[in-house]
Amino acid sequence: QEQLVESGGGVVQAGGSLRLSCAASGRTFSSYAMGWFRQAPGKEREFVASIEWTGDRTYYADSVKGRFTISRVNHKNTVYLQMNRLKPEDTAVYYCAREMYLFGSGQRRRSDEYAYWGQGTQVTVSS
Fold this sequence. Notes:
mainly beta, seven-stranded mixed beta sheet, globular
């Protein structure tokens, strides 16, 4: 069983930055790819970024490429999402999730390919 707890959300002006953290409690964190998703009011949950279990490879949605950076520190059981040049359309609840597959490449973007989810953290970007 893996428990994930996000933190770091808040209210920021357009053009600003936030760093989200996701702390995992399980002993298998370092063996699984991790992802960040977000869900805006009235919209479906969407993929934001993912990272291979080693941390060597990362993947991004086109809407955040060049602005967001996903990273992980395995000995701290933590994955991060650095968000720069934020836009009002980035406003959403952000969730971290652990992929289903052991030693995954991190390329999966569908919600149903992730087994464990955090409770989410709200990010609000004002214009």
